[in-house]
Amino acid sequence: MPPIENDTGKNDLKSQIQLLIDSNQVMVFSKSYCPYCVKVKDLFKELKLEFNAMELDLIEDGTNYQDMLLEMTGQKSVPNVFINKTHVGGCDKTLQAHKDGSLQQLLCAETEAYDYDLIVIGGGSGGLACSKEAAALGKKAMVLDYVVPTPKGTTWGLGGTCVNVGCIPKKLMHQTAMLGTAIQDARKFGWEIDEKVKHNWDTMKDAVSNYIGSLNWGYRVALRDKNVNYVNAYAEFIEPHKVKATNKRGKETFYTAEKFIIATGERPRYLGIPGDKEYCITSDDLFSLPHCPGKTLVIGASYVALECGGFLAGLGLDVTVMVRSILLRGFDQEMANRAGEHMEEHGVKFLRKYVPIKVEELEAGSPGRLKVTAKSTESDEVIEGEYNTVLIAVGRDACTDKIGLDKTGVKVNPKTGKVPVSDEEQTNVPHIYAIGDILEGKWELTPVAIQAGRLLARRLYGGGKLKCDYINVPTTVFTPLEYGCCGLSEDRAIELYGQENLEVFHSLFWPLEFTVPNRDNNKCYAKIICNKLDNDRVIGFHYLGPNAGEVTQGFGTAMKCGATKEQLDNTIGIHPTCAEIFTTLEVTKSSGGDITTSGC
Amino acid sequence: MAHRLLVRRFWTLSSKDLRCLPVSSSSSFSTSLQSSRVPVLSRSLALASLRRAASFNVQDHDDFDVRVIKSELPVLVDFHAQWCGPCKILGPRLEKAVAKQSGKVTMAKVDIDDHTDLAIEYGVSAVPTVIAIRGGDVIDRFVGIKDEDELESFVSKLIGK
Ligand SMILES: Cc1cc2nc3c(=O)[nH]c(=O)nc-3n(C[C@H](O)[C@H](O)[C@H](O)COP(=O)(O)OP(=O)(O)OC[C@H]3O[C@@H](n4cnc5c(N)ncnc54)[C@H](O)[C@@H]3O)c2cc1C
Fold it and tell me: What does the similarity note say (chain B) (predicted)?
């Protein structure tokens, strides 16, 4: 690595070093082989102090660092120790400072000066869980939560995505749709219901909103009762230990803390085509839409797209889903396609291999009329369609770009905006942690964010050792025919273990509840993927059928316990249920055997 | 003097924003400024009903201070929310119980979503929560629904009957 000649390079380096000094309570510039360095690091370990050591011999431009440190401190040798932004010096000076107590003083001065032990940015699933836990462990904790309104002006209360515009309203509206199916089935079971059954969007929307209102209040009260200081303001770092909080009236307040947890979650992505923000809505708007959406185009094939399209169709609306390539990316593709086929059979139209290019308003109203122009991904074909509502559900972006992370040095994946963390949810800046949807390569699920947040607080403040386990996380997609899974998709399992080392057991089944109404025969499907090299351990669990969440939850525990095919076979089923199918799986995929069902 | 000031304040507020007038005939607790559910009553009618009304919607912390804490009369504070079903049943019953005491007690209605800080300050965990305040002090409270007889004795106790 050549020495840096130009000023910009030098200034960059200088600010990089300054950032390290500013953001670490104890910063040691060190060399891995240097015995004096080892000595000071041992001292800090003995004092149980968190420190950041940069080994200059192990990084590419270490000599440049050393030159710059000389310029900044007049000291060329290592270790070069900083405590609370103050230059302490080398090994002797540090040991001396420890002896005469000045080291302790340096350490205390700053910790006491922070307003809070912990500030959590984002009051969603993860943020609330960890701030409450930290406060319960006696720490002075603050949560900053603020909802930036959607382009349509929709906004909501405390609790984050899941409560307000995610899991909760989604599942309740899914339930609304399921009840519609139940009413149809009911006739076959002898219930005499008027031929014309109508659904009232406003009644559903108000009931859902009211329930959410009560949850928002519950969260607020819980924060008060647990002694977490809550501020309804948008937070942004302005220094490694300091945030600026702007409330809805634009008033700015500043808070400092020893540690930070970022839990800002994600927001729906827009398409970046003409008319998207003006005329389209996202899931952030749908659940509180003041009018029935009418004929709807759903753009995207994410689980949010399929769930929303599914329940809207279940309410009796005309629904089209526009898909660029595949359904449910990242999920088992066989299952995804089966769930999609079921939707298609129940009236949802799919426009496959199209991408929208513009959205125009034909007529304003509630709902109005929109024209969508789309083009094929395979040819020059351009199509047009008219809808009352266009719902964009093409993915979500992490809220990490407008929170001043550059002021802290926290690294973010520049492509995805996601934050890489250690297995203890620590970012590259030691006093800043991150949890929930913004994490790179982790699950975007409420219980995962909650678990990670709670365990993190226990590790930080309660002597906890347990880390969040991101393996074998069970989950469910609430499509009209629900899809529950845990562990690996078949596609991923083949990639990891090779087809020859896997045995896949599968079966179609017909829920007893479906027999009398005589619907959806041989649509429900169960599949497990077993690792032949490891005792036929179940490494993938997949279920397409009613109550998928309820069915999958317990098998998630079984997989955590390392369940094998033999153990499933030895389990006695509960009859008559859907879940019992997993105790009697016999046909392997490789055998090509018949998996259609016939009676009990 | 204090009393006159108070009355003036009451009038200015009310005539400034008709939409915030209490609607004696409706059980709706909507205090939201955007709410269009309150029919635009003829002004004189609205003002007339106001003169009779023993209850009012709290506007903000200062308003609470003047009309509740510094009130010469005992005040029942009804902490309620628009999303709360039981609140919609209790509200009219409370109004009735207060009206029966012909001017010996007033009733302040606080929407906990609009005035979260007040609700948090007064330890409200669930709605409806009703707090009885006399001379600025909380002297009684209950959470949940009560029937008309129970409410009557609650109010009587407050005015020292
Ligand atoms: C339609 C939909 C359906 C879903 N269904 C399910 C489901 O069925 N099951 C499931 O497990 N998960 C579901 N999820 C996912 C789940 O909602 C998320 O995984 C979960 O909410 C993530 O929690 P979090 O704490 O990371 O962030 P969030 O819950 O998103 O909370 C982040 C909070 O931080 C706030 N914030 C952001 N930036 C700032 C800032 N700078 N200052 C202050 N506050 C800020 C946000 O406004 C938000 O309130 C669903 C999501 C969607 C969109």
Answer: Belongs to the thioredoxin family.
